[in-house]
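Design job #97: recover the sequence.
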């Protein structure tokens, strides 16, 4: 019993000492890994609608990645920028992650192009003559006879083809928050490549299997996610400046293996929809490819400044009873609307539960539905804020808007929304800040 009491303070003091050592040296952005998605036998998405350029995702990602690498090297000559591939070769996701970890990357940027299911249409291209046979009977009993009558008719001849996607634009993805344990495993599995934010003399003496290192590694996994969120939002902002449609920062629930297996902040950019006519031509053009490369580079430069200068934008959380003196209508219209998801509902009534996503860090929100305030200056916690909503039949779209009253202790303001409609359940992760409101659109089917 006495030994247990002695061990605990020793462990805590060791942990605190280790954390303080790791915090002494600010993190420098020394190495960026740029990954061109797919490659070789893995072609990715292909343009398949009628009139498409028959583009292959692997070719588009390589072209954009090459321009991004060149632009980063020009704009940030003091930073090493390493591509995972420069030719049309196949690499599985584990190989891509291995390269990133081997070169001690401080940031992983994965380039992809999006797609989606295509609708089939048909057009009449002519007619053909066919013979239809009709069977009839005359008489009864033994005198009953079968009679077959042949009739020639004209039938239309149709040609079937694929329609282009209507959806276009760029989205940014990070590894899902519930996959943080996978990120932690990537750090431990690649411990020889793990780049601790401290002096080399300290990192060389670290025992990754020691008990006190486990919580430290977990902290780094969470830190990587927060940095990924910051980087992702910066990319989204810069791409939006070009006038392109953007879909905010997203977390895919099934996870993204290449992001989970890299022991560094990591984002994946879906640069556009290869089966949308306008997007496909944009992604194949020199102008479009360079515009994307320039936007991502500007985001990296801003991210580098934040990381290296320690200017994370942290602000003290607003107390729950400290109402900001800002009119509701001004709040609603003062920031750009970032549409994060569109949800089709089959019933007129549905429920929305709001939680703080990730760490509970004092995030506070004001919530509007179709322009009317429902919640004001409410703190997000692990306990749900529940809203029972009804679709307005006079509207084609019903808008739920999240206004960030602050960014908590860990920017940005992040919320987990769970929408329940009958037996259907949809999860949406919302990131909002002082420039953008997170918006969810509900439409009645």
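Job complete. Output follows.
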């Amino acid at each position: 019993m006495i030994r247990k009491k002695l061990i605990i303070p020793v462990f805590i003091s060791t942990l605190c000492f280790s954390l303080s050592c790791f915090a002494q040296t600010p993190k420098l952005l020394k190495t960026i890994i740029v990954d061109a998605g797919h490659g070789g036998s893995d072609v990715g998405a292909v343009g398949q609608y009628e009139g498409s350029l028959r583009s292959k995702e692997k070719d588009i990602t390589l072209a954009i990645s090459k321009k991004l690498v060149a632009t980063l090297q020009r704009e940030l000559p003091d930073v090493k920028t390493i591509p995972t591939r420069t030719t049309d070769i196949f690499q599985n996701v584990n190989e891509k992650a291995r390269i990133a970890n081997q070169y001690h990357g401080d940031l992983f940027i994965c380039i992809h192009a999006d797609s989606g299911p295509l609708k089939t249409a048909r057009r009449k291209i002519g007619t053909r003559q066919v013979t239809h046979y009709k069977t009839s009977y005359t008489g009864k009993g033994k005198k009953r006879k079968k009679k077959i009558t042949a009739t020639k008719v004209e039938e239309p001849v149709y040609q079937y083809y694929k329609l282009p996607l209507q959806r276009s634009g760029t989205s940014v993805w990070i590894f899902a928050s519930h996959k943080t344990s996978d990120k932690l495993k990537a750090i431990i599995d690649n411990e020889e490549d793990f780049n601790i934010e401290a002096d080399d003399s300290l990192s060389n003496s670290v025992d990754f299997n020691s008990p006190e290192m486990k919580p430290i590694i977990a902290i780094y996994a969470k830190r990587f996610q927060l940095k990924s969120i910051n980087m992702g939002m910066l990319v989204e902002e810069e791409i939006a400046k070009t006038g392109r449609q953007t879909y905010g920062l997203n977390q895919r629930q099934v996870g993204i293996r290449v992001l989970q297996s890299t022991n560094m902040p990591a984002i994946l950019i879906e640069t556009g929809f290869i089966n949308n006519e306008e997007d496909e031509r944009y992604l194949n053009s020199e102008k479009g490819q360079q515009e994307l490369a320039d936007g991502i580079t500007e985001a990296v430069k801003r991210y580098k400044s934040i990381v290296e200068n320690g200017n994370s934008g942290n602000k003290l959380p607003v107390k729950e009873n400290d109402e900001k003196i800002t009119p509701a209508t001004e709040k609603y219209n003062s920031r750009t609307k970032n549409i994060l998801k569109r949800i089709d509902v089959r019933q007129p009534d549905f429920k929305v539960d709001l939680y703080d996503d990730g760490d509970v860090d004092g995030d506070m929100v004001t919530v509007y539905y179709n322009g009317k305030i429902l919640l004001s200056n409410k703190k997000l916690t692990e306990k749900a804020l529940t809203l029972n909503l009804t679709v307005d039949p006079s509207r084609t779209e019903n808008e739920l808007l999240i206004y960030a009253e602050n960014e908590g202790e860990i920017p940005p303001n992040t919320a987990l929304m769970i929408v329940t409609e009958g037996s259907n359940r949809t999860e949406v992760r919302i990131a909002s800040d002082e420039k953008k409101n997170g918006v969810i659109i509900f439409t009645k089917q």
